[in-house]
Amino acid sequence: MDDIAALGYRGIQLRGSAFNTWGEFPEELKTLLADRKLEFVALSSGNLALDPAQASQSLKEHYRHARFLKDAGGRYLQILEDRPRGHTPEPDDYVYVGRLLTELGKRTADLGVPLVYHNHIGAFGEKPDELARILDAADPRVVHLLLDTAHYKQAGGDPAAAIRRYGGRIRLLHLKDVDGSHFIELGRGSVDFKAVFAALDDIAFDGWGVVEVDDLADPRANTPKESNAIGRRFLESLGRWNDGS
Questions:
Q1: C-alpha closest to that of 68 among 50, 42, 36
Q2: Dihedrals φ, ψ of 216, to 5°?
Q3: Distance between CA atoms of residues 88 and 203, nearest Å
Q4: Which residues lie across from 52 on neighbouring strands?
Q5: Of 66, 61, 169, which is closest to residue 119 (Cα–Cα)?
Q6: What is the pLDDT of residues 176-220, one digit of tens each?
Q7: Rounded Cα–Cα distance for residues 191 and 178 (Å)
Q8: Is 10 a residue whose pLDDT tops 90?
Q9: pLDDT category of residue 245 using cuts at 50, 70 and 90
């Protein structure tokens, strides 16, 4: 939190471990963020269990995360799921995932917390056509999209095209770059961010974009703080840094 605030970022997304730390003390987290002038943009709620024997309990767990997020002053609940290893998806799988997402989305919407589905390598919504199937199967009123530029690119898609296709569904973005099989700092990979921002302009997007770094391009030279500084400098070079003024 201190590093992100020091770099001038105005919001933060936290992982599920935040619930483990502050689950019983959401007001404490809310104060910590407010002291650093950081908005609680999203909580990574983890994976939605697809096994019917575990799905009911999983829905309850993610609902608890949404309630914590709400109490801590947060905005969006991020969700994804794991594709079983060695399993070739069938049409009914996407319908089933969409149905579970809809059920969770209805529950979180009752709290005033929008649910955002994260396209992700290794999930049922990994490839562009697979993401489309899941979104088609889920209720657009309660299941929104968190578009990750790097994961979409890595899966063979064009992030700018996805923005134009799902403009009405996108609530949040992960601004992330990829080089080969490695997710790296903005501007150091193959994602065409000029095209991404042009597409965002075309749909008049006015939401949050979270700069995400999964790994350090050169851990010997960069700290996580420096990696995020690289992201800021890249956004500034594109004239896309919003300092709140």
A1: 42
A2: -95, 130
A3: 35
A4: none
A5: 169
A6: 999 988 898 999 999 999 999 999 999 999 999 999 987 766 666
A7: 7
A8: yes
A9: very low
Average pLDDT of the segment spanning 99-123: 97
Mean pLDDT of 219-230: 83
Query: Mapping DSSP to helix (H, G, I), strand (E, B) and coil, where does residue 178 land?
Result: strand
Residue type, position 234, single letter: F
Residue 130, both tokens? 């697979």
Whether residue 3 contacts residue 225, with contact meaning beta carbons closer than 8 Å, is answered with: yes
Which one-letter amino acid corresponds to residue 45?
S
Which residue, 72, 162, 87, is CA-closest to 117? 162
The two beta strands, 170-175 and 76-80, are: unpaired
With 60 as the cut, is the pLDDT of residue 97 above it? Answer: yes
C-beta neighbour count of 226 within 10 angstroms = 16
Q: At what angle do helices 91-111 and 128-137 cross, to 10 degrees?
A: 60
CA distance 32 to 74: 13
